[in-house]
Amino acid sequence: MLREQDVGHRIVVRRIVGIREGRPLFSDALGELVELSETHLTLATDEGRLRVPRGEVHRAKRVPPARRPTAAAVVALELAADEAWPAPTRDRLGDWLLRAADGWTGRANSALPVGDPDRPLPAALDAVERWYADRGQPAMVNIPLPLAAPVGAELDARGWDSRPPVLVQTVPLASLPAAAPERPGSPPVELTTAPSADWLAIAAGRKGGLPDAARHVLTAVGQVRFAQVHADGALVAIARGTVTGHSRWLGLSLIEVLPAARRQGLAGRMVRALVDWGAATGATHAFLQVEQRNTPAVTLYRGLGFTTHHTYVTRVAPR
Questions:
Q1: pLDDT tens digit sequence for 171-189
Q2: 143-180, pLDDT tens digit by residue?
Q3: Given CB 3.0 to 4.6 Å as the disulfide criterion, which of 58, 252, 276, 284 pairs with 288?
Q4: Interatomic CA distance for residues 44 and 76, integer angstroms
Q5: Which of 75, 63, 79 is nearest to 10 (CA)?
Q6: Residue 50 belongs to what domain range?
Q7: Burial of 35: CB neighbours in 10 Å, binned 0-12, 13-18, 19+
Q8: Does 273 lie in the same domain as 183?
């Protein structure tokens, strides 16, 4: 039978859905186990969330992990993520992307080595180092795994450092839970097309300042919304949503709730509001990026049905 350690894993459940001629009728469901209680279990399936009373469960077991996404799927999602977080200074090295944003965030100040750099790997990395040196910045490379593992091996040989692994997580929008009923008097979630000064102040506190390049990263997207929640006249929660990747992907970022307003479901409500907006524009899936060591955030997103699509590591050249 299922145990607490099965939460977060894909399982198959055979459940009793009726009786015919004295015999039980069964139906199978496959999805990620996102909740397990004494009375129910909840799966995030491709068709949506399914809540099954334990009394209906005939058999349940964990299934082997799904196959890794194809290289094409990783590239497509990485390019959608780049479109959602656009660095103001950009260049190309064959298919590779070179990006700079005055040092604001690793994603906007790193090379993305997907595709063919149009030269041998050592020469490509030499060119990356020169490009960032010309801008007075340390060279950084985002390594999607396992796609760019050969690049990582070459950087190991050069003595490059590694930042903590980042999970790129995804979920079909249809699998996300419906919005929880709002408590009486709950402040509404507002969606705006441009960030307010207060919104930017909270983002700056999280990211360590906001240079002009950061404002470009946040706003220079064709389809973008800024979620915010006010309480007693003060801004207490923010989030950002984008739709990119040929309108398939809703990107979620900068989900932040001030300490005094936490544990009130505001993060989930902002996500839900952005999901509704994204779905209305044609998006079918959501993605986000979260450090693997950020356990509270990983737990929150797992409860919403997010699973890891792939991982990336930011590599930094030695000074």
A1: 999 888 776 667 777 889 9
A2: 998 888 889 899 999 999 999 999 999 999 988 877 66
A3: 252
A4: 23
A5: 63
A6: 4-62
A7: middle
A8: yes
Same domain, 200 and 113: no
Three-state secondary structure along 286-303? EEEEEECCCHHHHHHHHH
* CA dist., res. 311 & res. 290, Å (int): 10
pTM score of the predicted model: 0.79
List of long-range contacts for 297-300, beta carbons under 8 Å, 24+ apart: 297/255, 298/167, 300/267, 300/268
Q: Which helix (H) or strand (E) holds 16?
A: strand 10-20
Do 99 and 87 contact (CB within 8 A), yes or no? yes
Is residue 73 one of the residues assigned to a domain?
Answer: no
Asked, for residue 72, whether it belongs to a domain, the answer is no
Does residue 42 form part of some domain? yes
Cα–Cα distance measured from residue 138 to residue 129, given in angstroms and rounded to the nearest whole number: 8
Nearest CA among 292, 255, 254, 258 for reference residue 105: 254
- Nearest CA-CA partner of 114 in 80, 154, 143, 152: 143
